[in-house]
Amino acid sequence: MRWQGREQSTNVEDRRGSTSGGRTGGKKIGGVFGFIILLIGSYYGVDLSGLINSSETSIGSHSSNLTAQEEDQLNGLSRTVLRETEKTWQRYFERNGQHYQLPTMVLYNGATPTACGTGQSAMGPFYCPNDRKVYLDLSFYEDMRKQLGASGDAAFAYVIAHEVGHHVQNLLGILPRVTAEQQKHSSQANALSVKLELQADCFAGVWGNQAAQNNLLETGDLEEAFNAAEAVGDDRLQKRSQGYVVPDSFTHGTSAQRLAWFKRGLQSGDPTQCNTFANN
């Protein structure tokens, strides 16, 4: 990606070095699972983050081996991508007579307090609707590269754009409506979560469309993003962690679904094409 030298977002809160402890051990899971637990916890006003380490969906665990130079590069990349998402969604909201409230990105190590409970790096990147902040431990880049086989700056950018997609859902009222439906119809909670995640993938694709127009992407970047979308599919994660797949437990969507919806947003550049909740 051609991100060096571009404008960076100032809506970043850097808590690295000030959080409690280092990178947490134990099982690693996809960010969406942590996001769902935080969402449920915030609904009831309790901290459910302690449930994270009891998950059976494991990506693995390790200590971060990022060098200072690598962290500095990822810090700059994250701030630049966040700024690009800000410009993308500001344009969309303004065209529709609305104001886009900018999210804050929190960079942290290991664990950090959030308005949705205690955030842990074991959750992966996540969005907290209560404080409208995206939480990111930069060592997730290492997880993507070494454990998920999704490497490259464009792959990491996709993850950030996906989490910002949850912020867009929150501002549009989609997130609170889905949360309410999940509480009313618990048997449909997983299916609704899949739709929510696929829409965030599509919104990430909308950002990708603008990034391509703004000459941010280089040859091979789209392939990196495509690979990242596929790498975090429920079927692939479950196959990796337990050797078999349980479709009824899906909360992300399959690799094919995630890639398809990301491409839909990428090709159309139109958020109205991201209605994963339509009967189709």
TrEMBL record:
Region annotated Disordered, chain positions: 1-24
Regions that span the bilayer: 29-46
Membrane topology note: Single-pass membrane protein
Annotated localization: Membrane
InterPro entries linked: Uncharacterised_pept_Zn_put (IPR007343)
Gene Ontology, cellular component aspect: membrane
Keyword entries, A-Z: Membrane, Transmembrane, Transmembrane helix
Protein name: Neutral zinc metallopeptidase
Organism: Alitibacter langaaensis DSM 22999
